[in-house]
Design brief:
There is one protein chain. The relative contact order is 0.13. A two-stranded antiparallel ribbon has the order 1-2. It is built from five helices and two strands. With 145 residues, the chain is mainly alpha-helical. The termini are far apart.
Length: 145
């Protein structure tokens, strides 16, 4: 057997084991749902890649609006000089926008990937998808926030 075939068999075996583990969690009392990610997460399109792309552009647009307003108003209230806007504000806006956009796109991707791997959703699934991603992505955000 070739090494590539062996590697594929190991991945398939690992996924089957993961599904069994998750199904046993379901038997322990977690309410499961057989809805697809299209029915539950991205109802505007049945395609996960298209949904991720849509979420990316929407998150980018709205986070730029939110953070540019937030940082500019904060700088105005602190009566900062024009150099502060040139040197600091735009960097903070871009950093925070990157954080929020990455969080949105990674969550959508994790949400769809979970359904493909596990085969079902259960009640705390949003937490299972969100906490590890947010923990990693928080390092993008400004440390004072």
């Amino acid at each position: 057997m070739s090494s590539e075939k062996r590697w594929q068999d190991e991945i398939i075996s690992l996924l089957k084991t993961l599904r069994q583990l998750l199904r046993s969690l379901a038997r322990l009392g977690f309410t499961t749902s057989s809805l697809t990610c299209y029915e539950l997460g991205h109802t505007w399109t049945p395609y996960c890649r298209q949904a991720s792309k849509d979420v990316f552009f929407s998150a980018l647009k709205y986070s730029l609006k939110i953070y540019s307003s937030l940082y500019v108003v904060t700088a105005l209230l602190k009566r900062k000089k024009i150099n502060y806007y040139v040197e600091v504000v735009w960097k903070d806006v871009l950093r925070s926008t990157a954080f929020l956009t990455a969080n949105a796109i990674c969550f959508m991707s994790a949400f769809c990937s979970w359904r493909k791997v596990a085969g079902f959703y259960f009640y705390p699934n949003v937490i299972v998808c969100a906490i590890p991603l947010s923990s990693c992505l928080i390092h993008i955000e400004k440390s004072s926030r």
